[in-house]
Amino acid sequence: MSELTLRKIPFTPESENRLMMMKARTGLDRTDLCRIGFCLSLEEPGIPTLDESSLHGGREIDRYTLLGQHGQGYVSLLVVWMRQNGVAPSPSGEVDAPFVAHMNRGVELITSRVRTLVDLASLLPTQAAVSGRRAKGVTPPSA
Question: Which residue from 143, 40, 48 is spatially nearest to 101, judged by alpha carbons?
Fold first, then answer.
């Protein structure tokens, strides 16, 4: 089974700066911004890449602080994405590298799409998008 083995999730110094800026703009906690960004990254086409050397000097956030009690849910979303995109976990079954890459790409995506707290509404799916997903056999969770 695929597993996230990291205890601390590393971010690039650039991602850290963007998170500080976004926290000031929106008032949202960095962990909330990271979770939203992670989901944005999973929706984005292409496979994110991240040079491990770019992580030096950046902040690390404790995995439980970042994901809370829903950590396995985020890992499950990543595993589904990996299967759909033909990305294999490491030989030991870990998904650390793609997880970190999506977290960092997610920070970049959210900072490019959200300027203020009000802009978060633009990230919500429209009725047309929800209808299109239903037509493809994907049912959104009920409220």
Answer: 48
